[in-house]
Specification:
single chain, alpha+beta, 6-stranded antiparallel β-sheet, 36% helix, 30% strand, globular, YjbR-like_sf, DNA-binding
Length: 107
């Protein structure tokens, strides 16, 4: 299980990550782009994964990770049941979500 405070701490540990409201949810952003949201009412996170990562997480834990059931889900937005996910698995998915949204560093 992942608490909201653990979620917040992990999300804000990324470079330039900020917390802002997003309708009735809390969002975490980098350069004004959302990489994760928290739905307090349902104790769920939504992460922005790429197609491959989404399929891997959903296949390995379909009761914990599943695409949003609309066009957003087809774009990689993935629901995570925070009451069921192992902290290490959530942190891995959150990091991938951040990396998908964060600007790429120039070499």
């Amino acid at each position: 299980m992942v608490s909201f405070e653990d979620f917040r701490k992990a999300a804000l540990s990324f470079e330039n990550a900020v917390e802002e409201p997003h309708f009735e949810k809390t969002s975490f952003r980098v350069n004004k782009k959302i990489f994760a949201t928290f739905d307090e009412k349902n104790n769920r996170a939504v992460l922005k994964l790429n197609e491959i990562d989404q399929s891997v997480f959903c296949a390995s834990s379909e009761m914990i990770f599943y695409p949003i059931p609309n066009k957003w889900g087809k774009q990689g937005w993935t629901i995570v049941e925070l009451s069921k996910v192992r902290p290490e698995m959530f942190e891995d998915a959150l990091k991938l979500s951040y990396q998908n949204v964060a600007p790429k560093k120039k070499k």
